[in-house]
Design a protein that fits this description.
Layout: H1 2-9, E1 13-17, E2 20-24, H2 26-32, E3 39-47, E4 57-63, H3 70-85, E5 88-95, E6 103-111, E7 116-122, H4 142-154, E8 160-161, E9 167-168, H5 179-193, H6 204-209, H7 214-219, H8 221-230, H9 247-264, H10 270-288, H11 305-313, H12 321-337, H13 345-361, H14 365-379, H15 385-393, H16 411-431, H17 435-445
Antiparallel strand pairs: 1-2, 3-5, 4-7, 5-6, 6-7, 8-9
């Protein structure tokens, strides 16, 4: 109908880019999509030692020649044997399906009893690397290291004992079945011959794989108890991040809801459909539109900067986070520059603490870290050096990636940022000789 044509004719898909929504229509989407053909393209060769097993990603696939031609099979076998004898692997560009994502992979030669093949494993690229920074671990004591060593020795699978107290290797891979696959195929066979019966239970041998061995864990019980004594573990509650809701999101949700409700109403009169569309537009503007936007605070005052800053940050009708942080930075700098003998230092310090808390909460660590670097460069010496000393004394340092994932500063770097400043101040104060002490020294010389 007319209503559907009008609504859906103007709708395009949007993709989130930062805090903006970028519309992409079908024509542009087809041009932007990467198209590639299914292929295995040889890029080069490398030593087996240069590609360790922990580089492998996903599963492993077997590569064999699909051609029945003796010449093709002989050529493939020649490559496999050559790589095997030279301890080499092949690095390839691998596209599994048409227009799928290309990946970097390695082909490892394998010679079986009556066949030759290559194992295909995908390799990571620079986009797959995740450089996670974690706080430094505490140095373990000798008692703790000894307890862990005894715990590992107590759970040695090669020292398991059977009913006759004879030692054997427990859970040997060649004699241990996959519980999931084993039960799946058992149910498959059972259902093929007994379509109406209930599924069978898991075999006792298979279920034993899923239960801890009482003999092994019974023997290692003293080591486990000792491990719990030397390592005190406390449960830590993880706070969930609060999701912010803006008025523009509520507008979009309300419009979509009204759109769905209107589409369900089948009317024959086109004028009624157009009138319904106008009502939706009027309802949206009345409840969520420009009405009431005049009271939005857009400027931080010097009288009560912290309350004004919080009001702008928490504004849900419009995203003013970046603007609020920019104005707060200007206000802090103004307090510092206008201070006479530190008259506004305390106010500037409170604003700086508030700016840091907001940067962590809003994932804007880079803005705060850049500004703190500027403060150190500008005020670590000179007229307002006392303000920087207050920052160091209060421990206001860079935001690390342990506080928010938006920061590129490690926990160690954040600690060293102020430690170096403290050391420099101590050295500077030690080199400065008070005037009274100078007079005492001159008196001793006379």
């Amino acid at each position: 109908d007319v209503y559907k044509r009008q609504v859906h004719g103007d709708m395009v898909k949007g993709y989130q880019y930062g805090k903006q929504l970028v519309p992409i229509d079908e024509t542009l989407k087809e041009k932007l999509e990467y198209k590639c053909s299914r292929c295995i393209k040889l890029l080069g060769f490398a030593d087996v030692s240069k590609v360790p097993r922990h580089y492998f990603m996903d599963g492993v696939d077997m590569v064999v020649p699909i051609s029945e031609s003796p010449q093709d099979q002989q050529a493939f076998a020649s490559i496999v044997n050559a790589l095997y004898e030279m301890d080499k692997v092949a690095i390839i560009r691998y596209v599994s399906r048409e227009n799928s994502t290309p990946s970097l992979a390695v082909l490892t030669p394998h010679i079986g009893g009556s066949y030759e093949c290559m194992w295909l494993n995908k390799l990571p690229t620079s986009e797959d690397i995740r450089d996670y920074q974690f706080p430094p671990l505490r140095q373990s004591s000798d008692v703790q290291e000894k307890s862990v060593s005894e715990f590992i020795d107590a759970l040695d699978l090669q020292e398991a004992e059977d009913d006759n107290s004879e030692k054997y290797e427990a859970l040997k891979p060649s004699q241990t079945f996959n519980p999931v696959l084993q039960y799946f195929y058992k149910c498959l066979v059972h259902r093929a011959f007994n379509a109406d019966d209930e599924l069978p239970q898991v075999d006792e041998v298979i279920s034993n794989y899923l239960r801890p061995d009482r003999k092994i864990f019974g023997k290692s019980l003293p080591a486990i108890e000792q491990l719990l004594e030397v390592f005190k573990l406390n449960e830590r509650e993880v706070k969930k991040d609060k999701k912010r809701v803006f008025w523009r999101n509520l507008i979009s949700e309300e419009a979509n809801r009204m759109e769905v409700e209107t589409q369900t109403v089948q009317t024959e009169d086109t004028d009624q459909q157009l009138e319904a569309l106008k009502e939706i537009d009027f309802f949206t503007k009345k409840n969520f539109g420009d009405i009431g936007k005049d009271d939005i605070l857009r400027k931080i005052s010097s009288v009560n900067p912290i309350d004004d800053f919080r009001r702008m940050i928490n504004e849900k009708r419009e995203d003013l986070t970046e603007e609020a942080m920019k104005q707060m930075i200007e206000m802090i700098t103004r307090f510092i520059e206008d201070s006479f003998q530190g008259s506004f230092y305390e106010k500037a310090l409170n604003c700086l603490n508030e700016l840091r808390d907001a940067a962590v909460k809003e994932d804007e660590a880079q803005i705060f870290n850049d500004y703190l670097q500027q403060l150190r460069t500008k005020y670590s010496s000179g007229k307002h050096e006392d303000f920087w000393k207050r920052i160091v004394k209060n421990g206001i340092t860079l935001i690390s990636n342990t506080e928010t994932s938006s920061s590129s500063v490690s926990f160690k770097q954040a600690q060293e940022f102020l430690m170096k400043e403290e050391e420099s101040h101590v050295i500077r104060e030690a080199l400065e000789v008070p005037k009274d002490d100078q007079d005492d020294l001159l008196g001793d010389i006379e």
